[in-house]
Amino acid sequence: MKRIDDKITQIHGFISQLKDIVPSEIEEYRSSIEKRAACERYVEKIVEAAVDLAFMAIKAKRFEIPEDDADAFNILSNHNFINEGLAKRLKAAKGMRNLIVHEYGRIDDDKVFHSITQELEKDVDEFLKEVKKST
User: Fold this and answer.
1) What string of DSSP letters covers 72-88?
2) Where on the phi/psi map is residue 32: left (φ > 0), alpha (ψ -120 to 50), or beta?
3) Is residue 109 a contact partner of residue 28, using CB atoms and an 8 Å limit?
4) Spatial separation of the C-alpha atoms in residues 111 and 117, rounded to whole Å
5) How far is CA 12 from the centre of its chain?
6) Rounded distance, CA 20 to CA 3, Å?
7) Distance set, CA 33 to CA 30, 38, 109, 112 (Å)
8) How far apart are CA 36 and CA 104, in angstroms?
9) Where are the alpha helices (DSSP H) in 1-135?
10) What CATH number belongs to 2-134?
11) Between 20 and 30 A from 120 (CA), which of 21, 47, 80, 92?
12) How many C-beta atoms lie closer than 10 Å to residue 61's C-beta?
């Protein structure tokens, strides 16, 4: 449980750090390569930490082993650890993270900014609450 608590604390820290650097307006986000790069890096860190936490929860609950990272969220949903909607949103965040990491030139800045400012924190916080409640 300590490892799970430590990972939750780490994720809260990443979210707080992201909130400190993300611009309030899309125009500033688009015009600053430094802001975009820093925000994208925090998206990577937050999503990877959430995936790590999903694997930790699966191990703690002795659920079946996922085939891949996205499957971890499916397994948690299948066992009613998280709801299906949250699983889909977390898999979408994982997909966005993969685009950021592997196809830098094709990133849709507007989508990333929207996710950072409207979705990621809410979805990850919901996931963290479920993990705390269920482990």
Assistant:
1) HHHHHHHTTSS-HHHHH
2) beta
3) no
4) 10
5) 11
6) 26
7) 7, 8, 11, 13
8) 11
9) 2-21, 26-31, 33-61, 69-78, 84-102, 109-114, 120-134
10) 1.20.120.580
11) 80
12) 13
Query: Which residue stretches of the chain have pLDDT < 50?
Result: none
Q: Give the count of beta carbons closer than 10 Å to the beta carbon of residue 43.
A: 21
Q: What is the pTM of this model?
A: 0.94
In this prediction, residue 65 carries a pLDDT of 96
- Region of 104 (left: φ > 0; alpha: ψ -120 to 50; beta: rest) is alpha
Instruction: Find, among 100, 11, 17, the residue nearest to 54 by Cα.
Output: 11
* Chain centroid, CA 125 distance in Å: 9
Token pair, residue 69, equals 């990272």
105: which DSSP letter? Answer: G
For 57-69, what is each residue's pLDDT tens digit? Answer: 999 999 999 999 9
The pLDDT of residue 1 is: 83
User: ∠ CA 87-76-101 to the nearest 5 degrees?
Assistant: 50
